[in-house]
Specification:
The chain contains nine helices and no strands. It is mainly alpha-helical. The protein is globular and about 55 Å long. Keywords: DNA-binding. It holds the Pfam family TetR_N. This is TetR family transcriptional regulator. It comes from Paenibacillus borealis.
């Protein structure tokens, strides 16, 4: 295991992530090898493997780091799932999808599925945390809370993804106006 505090280790991790991002812009995920990443990062393959198990673990970390950086303060500190929090989650998810899919060459169904599932899980975690903090009838039952958070996160992600696929870049307000009532009514919070 590598020492995560050592500045050299931190710098090497940054080099690996930057190299991987550059490669994702240039070629498909399936075509990227560990050798490609190591050469671009100016490290050897063994060094890559001291940091990551494989390119899937690297992708997972990059997805999560980028997504967590986009979480607005009001969502991060939310005590209730309000219309405003729902709006923020919808817009944040849409922005993430837009950024990720436009930066990366998404010509692989496997990477698209990994990204989709990871973002849905991250959304679920955020929403579940808010539900637990709030005083909702379902928050007493952890299973019910988890299921409602999963459904809510999936609805938000699916709507934002379809909006992206439809090419509606300029009408984010319409996306929010369509999705928020659906989500809030489904949760019984409207």
């Amino acid at each position: 295991m590598v020492n995560q505090i050592d500045p050299r280790v931190v710098r090497t991790g940054q080099l690996i992530r930057e190299a991987f991002r550059e490669l994702l812009r240039q070629k498909g995920f399936d075509d990227i090898t560990i050798k490609d990443i190591a050469e671009r990062a100016t490290i050897n393959r063994a060094t890559f493997y001291t940091h990551y198990e494989d390119k899937y673990a690297l992708l997972d970390e990059i997805i999560e780091q980028a997504f967590r950086k986009m979480i607005p303060g009001p969502v991060e500190h939310a005590l209730k799932f309000t219309d405003e929090i729902c709006n923020e989650l919808i817009l944040m998810t849409y922005r993430y999808i837009l950024d990720f899919y436009e930066i990366c060459r998404m010509d692989s169904k496997s990477i698209a599925t990994l990204v989709d599932e990871k973002i849905k899980r991250l959304l679920q975690q955020i929403i579940e945390r808010i539900f637990v903090k709030g005083d909702y009838p379902h928050s007493a039952d952890p299973n019910q809370t988890t299921i409602l958070a999963a459904m809510t996160g999936s609805a938000i992600y699916s709507a934002a993804y379809q909006w992206f696929k439809a090419g509606e870049r300029e009408r984010k307000d319409l996306l929010v106006d369509m999705v928020r009532p659906y989500v809030m009514n489904g949760l019984g919070l409207s």
